[in-house]
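Example record

Each entry pairs one chain with its bound ligand, nicotinamide-adenine-dinucleotide.
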Amino acid sequence: MGRMTQMPPEFPMRALFDAQHAASRAHVDVPLALRQDRLGRLRNLIESNANALADAVQADFGVRSRSLTEAADLFVLRAGMAQLHRQLPRWMKPQRVSTPLYLQPARAHLQPQPLGVVGVIGPWNYPLQLTLGPAATALAAGNRVMLKPSELTPETSALVASLVHKAFSADEFCVVLGAVDVAQAFSQLPFDHLFFTGSTQVGRQVAAAAAVNLTPTTLELGGKSPCVIDASCDLADAALKIAHGKLLNAGQTCIAPDYVLLPRGMEARFERAFLDAAQRLFPAVEGNPDYASIISERHHARLLALVGEARAGGARVVGWGADAQSAPSARRQLAPALIFNPPAHGRLMEEEIFGPLLPVLSYERLEDAIATINARPRPLALYWFGADAAARDRVLAGTVSGGVSVNDTLMHVAHDRLPFGGVGDSGWGAYHGKAGFLRFTHCKPVLVQSRFSLGHWFFPPYGQRFARIMGLLRRWI
Ligand code: NAD
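Structure tokens for the complex follow.
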């Protein structure tokens, strides 16, 4: 196979990889009909088992609304797959490329081809969208796919595996289950592309493992996504949208607003508006079927510790139920909290929060807010709220983030014609829509020479004719 791997060939995961690799080299050209057939099988699998899949996600979380899974996992998947189905015939076509004068009358085109075997490693927070979404895109691009879903959603991952194995042969699409040791071994396979969604910390390890095989990666990571509030904004509307983005899935969303930058003097108004909005969306926390559980005891304890550390560092913590947060919750439903004046150094402002805690930082001048963002690793998302277009444009031009929603949170991820991905510490490579198809495709440049080519004029031995032609060409370009 030429490429190195540290795994023994008898390892079952390795055998699956070998089967997919052999099939991908034996059937390089994957016609439209076969790609559509694979997409159709995946669509049927989702349609026929949507309820069971939503139940499995619910069971894995403890509390996780089926409506949330319907919208954020299943609808997004369905919309993405419908787009793939519709656009695939166009995206698969070779693209004509115009030819410069000095190479005419040759012709050129880009020939889209599958990469081969794609590995997908997924997280637990939207365990269907973030596993089957990239898998569907890679299949549409004609690849074989091996998927390693998260061990923190064991029921969902096991159900996905059994459904996929009924609908696909193992050399087309297979699922590998297991914890971190399996994930590490998986990331060492010499895939043609490795698509990872997860934390920045694990993303570094995945990138290092893939580099050994020269396997290109897409890293869909996390980070601290800021919300910039401009004094010109409709504060009630901004607070409602921030509360929605923050409290959806109890803050366990990669593009959830992580912290707020607020003009100094607006603190009391924002506090009231946010608490009203949170109350409106989730009138109760404990026992509310719409308000998701924190995924595990460990994650719950970490979030409580972040609040405790911030309080000890002098922060003011407010939120209905903020005092109740020290009490154990059987369902791990953690009440939202606003945290004013958090200590600058400490886990709350240095790590991605990934829970319903919202630090609020006050700023004097817009430049200060921009400098605060630029002093940190580049975020996955940025949100701006206001009516002052000039202020908006200063923030958009002065900061770099994976994506942006203006006067809303999260929604740019749902736009199926916008690429989605991070930059810097929030990841590299984007997918969704055509960007996703291209992510899993090699666009092979092809030049077709004409029999009227004058290329031989450039061949040695070099003499006067060569010098004359080069002189002419220099003037043409
Ligand atoms: P994680 O990084 O802990 O785990 C993700 C996956 O990686 C799991 O399947 C896990 O088994 C596997 N893994 C763990 N250790 C590994 C290793 N050493 N080598 C290879 N694989 C390994 O992330 P998580 O807790 O499941 O998800 C939460 C994180 O994911 C957050 O940081 C969040 O922002 C990020 N996220 C990003 C996006 C995005 O699209 N950018 C989407 C969702 C979540």
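The chain has a mean pLDDT of 95.
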